[in-house]
Amino acid sequence: MIRKSIILSAVLAASFLSSCKDDNATEDPIETEEITFTKEGEATLIKASSGDTIQQIDIEIADNSYERETGLMYRESMEDDQGMLFIYDNEAPRAFYMKNTYIALDIIYFASDSTAVSFQKNAQPQDETSLPSEAPAQFILEINAGLADDWNIEVGDKIDFQRVD
């Protein structure tokens, strides 16, 4: 009986030791594909007072629930002549946040008539603070932080956009 106990103990000890993870072993990193910009349209920002073009940019379009929820998350960079346009079915109060977003952004909220109604400038990466519109919005444009000021975009200015093939 003692012999069976010793053998059983030895087998259990061996199986326990062989199942322990080697703390010095390194795990292979998970490879992920970089998310790159895909031009889906063009947007022109227009000065309300003169009708002059402020800036033209290439845009990605987020017009379904998944795309709007994901937005620019996990992006490492964006060119200054690029942006993401969020399109909703109706005009309503909107709020964005920067969870899993790695680049600082200016967020411009536009009403259903394409008029800029408010801004959230220099939204900081990874910040989960709510960034609400100050008025109902149907279209929201995200561009690199600082560009709204550099381009002198103001409340009342307009956006015109079209999809490209």
TrEMBL record:
Pfam families (alphabetical): DUF192
PROSITE patterns, sorted: PROKAR_LIPOPROTEIN (PS51257)
Gene3D superfamilies in alphabetical order: Protein of unknown function DUF192 (2.60.120.1140)
Origin superkingdom: Bacteria
Keywords linked to the UniProt accession: Signal
Signal peptide: 1-20
Keyword Transmembrane in record: no
Matching PANTHER family: UPF0127 PROTEIN MJ1496
Protein name in UniProt: DUF192 domain-containing protein
